[in-house]
Amino acid sequence: MKEIKVVSGEYQIENEIKRSRFIATAKGEVNQEEAEAFVKSVKKKYPDATHNCYAYVADELGNIARFSDDGEPGGTAGQPILDVIKKQGLVKTAIVVTRYFGGIKLGAGGLVGAYSGAAADVLKAAKILVKKECKKVRLKTDYSTFATVEKYLFKSECRPLDFEYGDDVSAEIIVPLNKVDEFAEGLKELTSGKVEAIILDEIFFEAIDK
User: Fold this and answer.
1) Same domain, 21 and 115
2) 201: pLDDT confidence band, cut at 50, 70 and 90?
3) Which of 67, 104, 111, 140 maximizes the CB count within 10 A of its CB?
4) Is 64 exposed, middle or buried (0-12, 13-18, 19+ CB in 10 A)?
5) What would the DSSP string read from start to end of 62-89?
6) Would you tell me how many other CB atoms lie within 10 Å of the CB of residue 196?
7) Number of independent structural domains in the chain
8) Helix axis angle, 180-190 to 143-155, nearest 10°
9) Range of the domain at 51
10) Which of 126, 145, 179 is the last residue of a domain?
11) Partners of residue 53 on adjacent β-strands
């Protein structure tokens, strides 16, 4: 089973190095379109900045990765930011590091350290979610069995979504991919087959707090 790590939400920090201001802004849960929109929004927020350098990984597999030095010497800004994202194993995450030049040149090594340091610092401030590869399971049971089912759900490695109460009780549950068969079989044994469990085909990544 695969797991991914993503930044949850948006975060910002600021560093000062030899009078230059480095403002790092990170955002998670982004696809490529959302990452590009995020970069544009930061540039719009700091239109007078000397540079707005960025990098992002915009898919679960880490195949969609982009970066920009935005006028800094090649390889001193965007790539170091991207390296920090990849080193921490993050996906669907974008970071923009905004620089206001303070009049003192840092040199190539200094720039790499400043941009990678700012990216690392904003990730230290961020909440990181671990998401597991999951499937959705649809359940249906009668009211007399539901109390037993409910206890099982909250002891299992799963996350209940919606419950519907009609003639019977229906629910949708998110279950880690490697636990789906075990989950369904355990429910069947516990209730003597009184629960109808339908495993849906879609595979996606979801945070499971277990």
Assistant:
1) yes
2) confident
3) 111
4) middle
5) S--EEEE-TTSPTTSSHHHHHHHHHHTT
6) 13
7) 2
8) 140
9) 3-126
10) 126
11) 97
Q: Inform me whether the pLDDT recorded for 171 exceeds 70.
A: yes
Residues 22 and 44 in one domain: yes
Record the pTM: 0.84
pLDDT, tens digit, 9 for 90 and up, residues 87-140: 999 999 999 999 999 999 999 999 999 999 999 999 999 999 999 999 999 999
- What is the 3 state secondary structure string of 11-49? EEEEEEECCEEEEEEEEECCCHHHHHHHHHHHHHHCCCC
Q: Last residue of some domain: 97, 126, 155? A: 126
Report residue 155: phi and psi, to 5°: -95, -15
CB 96 within 8 A of CB 120: no
Q: Are residues 121 and 139 in the same domain?
A: no
The CATH number of whichever domain residue 188 belongs to comes to 3.30.70.240
**Long-range contacts made by residues 160-169, C-beta under 8 angstroms, separation at least 24?**
161/136, 168/140, 168/141, 168/142, 168/143, 169/140, 169/141, 169/142, 169/143
CATH number reported for the structural domain that contains residue 37 in this entry: 3.30.230.30
Residue 167: pLDDT band (50, 70, 90) is: confident
